[in-house]
Amino acid sequence: MDGRAGASLSPRSQPEKMILRKQLEALSVLQWVLTFLFFGLFFTLLLIYLLFTSFWSLSVLYFVWWIMDLDTPMQGGRRNERFRRWKVWELHRNYFPIKLVKTAELPPTRNYVLGSHPHGIICAGAFSAFCTEACGFSRAFPGLSSSLAVLAGLFYVPVYREYLMSSGMVPVSKRSLDFLLRAGPGHAVVIVVGGATESLDCNPGEQRLHLSGRRGFVRLALQHGADLVPVFSFGENDIFRQIQFPEGSLLRRLQLHFKQLAGFAPCLFVGRSLFFSRCWGLLPQPSPITVVVGKPILVPLCPHPKPEEVDRYHALYVQALQQLFEEHKGNCGLPSSQQLFIT
Predict the structure, then answer these.
(1) I need a surface site. Which of 65, 93, 101, 231 has the fewest CB within 10 A?
(2) Is 109 helix (H, G, I), strand (E, B) or coil?
(3) What pairs with residue 171 in β-bridges?
(4) Contact 272/280 with Cβ under 8 angstroms?
(5) Residue 29's closest CA among 289, 286, 290, 288?
(6) Distance between alpha carbon 146 and the CA centroid of its chain, in Å?
């Protein structure tokens, strides 16, 4: 009788397990979004508040250590493999889901500069593929260590900097990237080339990249003889809907002015609610993201590249990126008529 009772309950328990799994996936993504938006501000205010309480010594000790440790992000950071393999990131990956596609070998005997496109609102695809092991980066590219380069100012934010470094992130500064590419072979530096400007132009169903005037990553590759690799995250722009302000409006001008001052643009975006599917919220839409890593472009070592050399390899990179997009857009759910706009 006990066996029959267990068998009769099994069909009912399966949907319950599936619902629980979906809720855990949503919670894992929500904590990631909240961390991105509020983690740094929360701990900054907390440490300041503690200075005026009986726990003031905690803040003083942390800030003393923070000053002593200030150069660590510029020297490769402090990645934590246990953090990168945290089970929460598998739930995060499955929510969308996110998939990493390898198109060519990247031997660990070389260094690489990976250009990641598009920026999107929050770089969900790049984070999962290169800052965690949820998508299996180390299995796909054995011997290669990936480091996602983000806004350098974030590494001055108390406690948040530890979170960033644990995942393998580094400042997107010449000093930081030079350190990694000089440390020996086997490093894959990932740069989200479009940056804050591109984040203001990401809309569902559109593929617009800001790349024409961005040549610093090409110059960096030439200076270190690191191969250039295009990466495209199909579906990145579909997980949020951005509230767009008309060109020339006051709010649009404020966005652009803030971007020039702080290095990032304050975007207003909406997703879905955790509990009510018809309500707006901070949770991204569960739209598939496919991160396709293209073929490497062999780059010679040129410590002092001339402008024409930079232009040549920039043109080769743009051509390879466009080819990557055309070859894989059909397999990633985009219509054959979908075009890639590069400005």
Answers:
(1) 65
(2) coil
(3) 150
(4) yes
(5) 286
(6) 12
Spatial neighbors of 239 by CB under 8 A, at least 6 apart, are: 96, 120, 121, 122, 124, 271, 284, 285, 287, 289
**Tens-of-pLDDT digits for all 343 residues of the chain?**
444 444 444 555 678 888 899 999 999 999 999 999 899 999 999 999 999 999 999 999 999 999 999 999 999 999 999 999 999 999 999 999 999 999 999 999 999 999 999 999 999 999 999 999 999 999 999 999 999 999 999 999 999 999 999 999 999 999 999 999 999 999 999 999 998 788 887 888 889 999 988 999 999 999 999 999 999 999 999 999 887 777 777 777 776 676 666 666 677 787 887 766 555 778 999 999 999 999 999 999 999 999 999 999 999 999 999 999 999 999 998 998 899 999 8
For 4, phi then psi, to 5°, come to -65, -40
Q: In degrees, to the nearest 5, what angle opens at C-alpha 73 toward C-alphas 68 and 74?
A: 100
Answer for the pair 200, 85: CB distance below 8 angstroms, yes or no.
Answer: no
Contacts of residue 153, Cβ cutoff 8 Å, sequence gap at least 6: 262, 263
Gap between the Cα atoms of 343 and 330, Å rounded: 23
Which domains are assigned to the chain?
14-333 (3.40.1130)
In sign, the C-alpha dihedral spanning 300, 304, 309, 311 is positive
Q: Which amino acid appears at position 158 of this protein?
A: P
* CB within 8 Å of 196: residues ≥ 6 apart: 119, 259, 263, 264, 265
Residues β-bridged to residue 241: 270
Smallest CA-to-CA distance from 189 within 234, 135, 145, 233 is with 145
Q: Tokens for 242?
A: 């951005």
- Where in 169-322 does DSSP place strands (E)? 170-171, 187-192, 208-209, 227-234, 241-242, 269-270, 289-293
Residues 6+ apart with CB under 8 A from 117: 192, 193, 194, 209, 211, 230, 231, 232, 233, 321
